[in-house]
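ok trying this again, last paste got cut off
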Amino acid sequence: MSRTHLYELPDSGGRDRRIRMCDLAAFEVQRDGDRCELAERFTRQSKTTVGAIDEVVVSAAST
Protein backbone atom coordinates (compact mmCIF):
# COMPACT_ATOMS: atom_id res chain seq x y z
CA MET A 1 0.00 0.00 0.00
CA SER A 2 1.38 3.38 -0.88
CA ARG A 3 2.13 6.02 1.73
CA THR A 4 -0.30 8.36 0.01
CA HIS A 5 -3.12 5.83 0.29
CA LEU A 6 -2.26 5.17 3.93
CA TYR A 7 -2.43 8.89 4.65
CA GLU A 8 -5.86 9.11 3.05
CA LEU A 9 -7.35 6.40 5.28
CA PRO A 10 -7.58 8.26 8.61
CA ASP A 11 -10.42 10.75 8.77
CA SER A 12 -8.61 12.99 11.26
CA GLY A 13 -6.76 14.98 8.61
CA GLY A 14 -4.16 17.44 9.75
CA ARG A 15 -0.41 16.99 9.63
CA ASP A 16 -0.02 14.41 12.37
CA ARG A 17 -1.13 11.02 11.26
CA ARG A 18 -0.76 8.51 14.04
CA ILE A 19 -2.09 5.02 13.70
CA ARG A 20 -2.16 2.71 16.67
CA MET A 21 -0.47 -0.64 16.12
CA CYS A 22 -3.58 -2.54 17.24
CA ASP A 23 -5.66 -0.64 14.64
CA LEU A 24 -3.11 -1.45 11.95
CA ALA A 25 -3.13 -5.14 12.93
CA ALA A 26 -6.95 -5.19 12.89
CA PHE A 27 -6.96 -3.56 9.46
CA GLU A 28 -4.54 -6.17 8.16
CA VAL A 29 -6.63 -9.05 9.52
CA GLN A 30 -9.80 -7.56 7.98
CA ARG A 31 -8.10 -6.98 4.62
CA ASP A 32 -6.71 -10.52 4.54
CA GLY A 33 -10.14 -11.91 5.39
CA ASP A 34 -11.73 -9.88 2.60
CA ARG A 35 -9.12 -11.15 0.14
CA CYS A 36 -9.74 -14.77 1.15
CA GLU A 37 -13.50 -14.32 0.82
CA LEU A 38 -13.09 -12.82 -2.65
CA ALA A 39 -10.80 -15.67 -3.71
CA GLU A 40 -13.39 -18.20 -2.47
CA ARG A 41 -16.13 -16.43 -4.44
CA PHE A 42 -14.07 -16.58 -7.63
CA THR A 43 -13.35 -20.26 -7.00
CA ARG A 44 -17.05 -21.05 -6.52
CA GLN A 45 -17.96 -19.01 -9.59
CA SER A 46 -15.33 -20.82 -11.65
CA LYS A 47 -16.58 -24.23 -10.50
CA THR A 48 -20.16 -23.24 -11.31
CA THR A 49 -19.14 -22.05 -14.78
CA VAL A 50 -17.18 -25.23 -15.50
CA GLY A 51 -20.10 -27.35 -14.27
CA ALA A 52 -22.54 -25.48 -16.49
CA ILE A 53 -20.27 -25.84 -19.52
CA ASP A 54 -19.87 -29.57 -18.87
CA GLU A 55 -23.65 -29.94 -18.59
CA VAL A 56 -24.18 -28.15 -21.91
CA VAL A 57 -21.54 -30.27 -23.63
CA VAL A 58 -23.07 -33.51 -22.30
CA SER A 59 -26.56 -32.38 -23.35
CA ALA A 60 -25.33 -31.46 -26.82
CA ALA A 61 -23.50 -34.76 -27.23
CA SER A 62 -26.56 -36.81 -26.29
CA THR A 63 -28.82 -35.14 -28.89
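PB: full thing came through this time. The first helix runs from residue 3 to 8.
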